[in-house]
Amino acid sequence: MILALLAQSSLYALIAGLFVEALVGRWRIEDAAWRFRLRILALVVSAAGPPVLLLLAPFRESASFQVGWALFAGERWDQVRVGGEGLGSLTLLLSCGLGSALFLRDALPPLADALRGSKALAEVPPWHGARAALGPVVAAQARAFGVPVPAVRVVRTDAPVLLCEGVRQPVLVVSLATLEHLSGAELDAALAHELAHAAHRDPAWSYALIAVRAALFFNPAVQWVARAMVDDIEGRADQAAVRASGGAAALVRVIRKLFDTDHPPPSDGDASFERVFWRIRKQGVERRCANLERSGSAAPLLHGPVLLATAGAVLLSLLFFVV
Amino acid sequence: MSPMLTVTGAVRSCLLLASLFALGLKGADHLPSLMAGTPYGARVYWTVADAEAGIGSRLWLPTSVPPSIGWPPARIDVWPEPPVSVAVHFPARAGGKDGLILVQSIGVRAAAAEAILPPVHVLMTVDDVPLGERTGTMTRALAPGGQLLHDLSWDQGTRHLVLRYAGPVEDLLQVAASLGRIRP
Predict the structure, then answer these.
(1) What is the pLDDT of residue B2?
(2) In a 3-state reduction of DSSP, which class is residue B102?
(3) What is the value of pTM for the model shown?
(4) Which residue, A40, A60, A135, B71, is most buried by CB atoms nearer than 10 A?
(5) pLDDT tens-digit map of A44-61
(6) Within an 8 Å CB–CB cutoff, is residue B94 touching chain A?
(7) Does B34 touch chain A (CB under 8 A)?
(8) Chain A nearest-CA residue for B76
(9) Given a cut of 90, is residue A218 above it in pLDDT?
(10) Does A20 touch chain B (CB under 8 A)?
């Protein structure tokens, strides 16, 4: 029974993930907030679909449903034998391995950091000029976003740090290095991006996504959808920042500048994998900047709730016939 | 969203996409049967123990098979819709396709689903073939591939049994007789 639920969860996540991606493409959704909501749908269906359908519609397990009504029955794949084992079981095994690898790839580095006990960054004293200069800017931006003014921590570090943390009470963390590198317009755009995270409670969403990924670590499609949702969270903050600052140019400069400062190009003496990783990250940054320059703030999806409800109903109807 | 796309258009494209997915899933659902050469819709087991656990009932098996037939059964197809019927495939020792198929209904005397016992072109039928205390019906037939074969069918207890074999009729009668001696 547990194996059947695992298999069904993986199958549902794959179908839901592909369906949502196809919808995003078909409907040409550029608004990251609605892409995020559609992907939540895929995650919810994968996590809750199998047990809920088992509870509400147990007849789906019957032979007559599987023979006469089912669009797809996963267990049929065990009829194909590979090395004495059913192909369905082998695929489930490989899928669990892939899902676990994808989860560990993202979970291990922060876990290792936490175990090492990374030192808290030293804050500047309350009378420091940077704190006084940031206060009014953050307050004005917070008013524009309609959120309470978050606490601001200014830290001393050589690395450019600019992030929003805190699940219940958002806190903006800015390093002196960041303030040194950014011009006035760039700082406005960067703070608008972080305040958008605060307005959408993105730190809480990030923890929720990690929890879902940990609970469904065996499910590669869930890992894939959840990673896409992290990109959506960033995209949503980017688009809100562009709307707030009236253009993408400043934010694009910030993204490039902070990346270049924090990740200088590897020298010829560095290991080849470091050069490859740097190039992949750089390509990701360039892709993000290109998207911003192309679509900018992206118009909100028209009739979003209706379309989301339609997508959910159609997806559930489809998955009802997958056993 | 494209500014030209209306709600109706978006819903229509969503339904179209779902239809394409449904078609794709249905097509993919037929692949295992095509790849394994098994009947679509049947549950396939590879051991007698697994099949008996799956249907929750003991299978009736012959105590002797002709020398040309291998043991144990190579595959067991179960048609899960009532009346449940089971096709036990015994391999031919010479290799290749099934040598002997034993089909039995479970719990009720009923003909097997066509999916697990494909129809053949009947050439001749003989009733009242003596099988110990029972009588059966022997059919000489041509399989779709042109192979000559015999079906021997009879009722025993609560089951309807059919033996399909392409070898000598004497062998078929011996297998049927051995089925009469086994566990009820």
Answers:
(1) 52
(2) strand
(3) 0.83
(4) A40
(5) 988 888 889 989 999 998
(6) no
(7) no
(8) A79
(9) yes
(10) no
